[in-house]
Amino acid sequence: MVSAPLIRVALSDGSFSGRGEATLFESPHADPKAATAEQLESVRSVIEAGVTREDLLKLLPAGPARNAVDAALWDLEAKRSGTGVWRLLGLSEPVPLEDMVTISLADAPQFEQELRDSTDCRVLKLKLGSDNDIERLEVTRRLRPDAQLVVDVNCAWTVGRLEEMLPVLARHDVRMVEQPVHADNEEGLRGLTHAVPIIADESFYGEEDLPRIAELYDGINIKLDKCGGLTAALRIVEQARERGLRLMVGCFAASSLATAAAFQVAGFAEFRDIAGHLILTEDTEPSIPCVNGWLSPPAPELWG
Questions:
Q1: CATH number given to 97-295
Q2: Taking residues 132-142, what's their average pLDDT?
Q3: What is the maximum span of the chain, computed from C-alpha positions, in angstroms?
Q4: Catalytic residue among 79, 125, 127, 226
């Protein structure tokens, strides 16, 4: 279990209130965590005077601050209208979504215990990027031959190592590999023959990245904290589909309040890893239940 630095925003019109949450993640961009509160204070008067979600896209840069305000605006509109965000979006009534369980880069005893503890969940995300990646795949398939398996390398391979591992991944029926190489080396993916789809995570932040990503990767991992909120994420979904990109929705460690907003876009995704609240030492109430890897839709009193 972990703790994480979060920021929460509450917006009220005197009768109804909306809430949003974001995670202050480490970013390679010139937008450090300390700037998030400063960003919000710099536009507080504009937001309090009344701002739309489309206004917000221009008012704040992509990142956690905009995500938190955007989520609060969606929640406020839902509370005012007495209906769910899903209905405001024109979506079908939400149903439980299957999420993936992460198996960490732990030492062998803990790694095997995590696999045994995961038997009630069908979709596993196996962290790779060590000297014994092949052994980890073999042990995973021995203990969980039934699992739908994806792997996350977090930039730890070279392009050469990826080429060596691709047939190994295919042999173990891996459904996709997430961010195998660092963004500095991703040009090596251009024209690379591969049967296992390659998904961009650390290389992808927002819609401005889509033209480059579409030339190098098969899909993207959308995180609301990176792209700047549900409104931006929905725009990305539409544009990614037009480019034929496969979709994943991910998250950082966060409470159920953040998971609730991610849930709205996760239904569009082929791969989902949005239950950041399950690894927090303490969650908000009401929390979002997860049973055998299936997340329930958020309760209206939580969000949306």
A1: 3.20.20.120
A2: 98
A3: 60
A4: 127
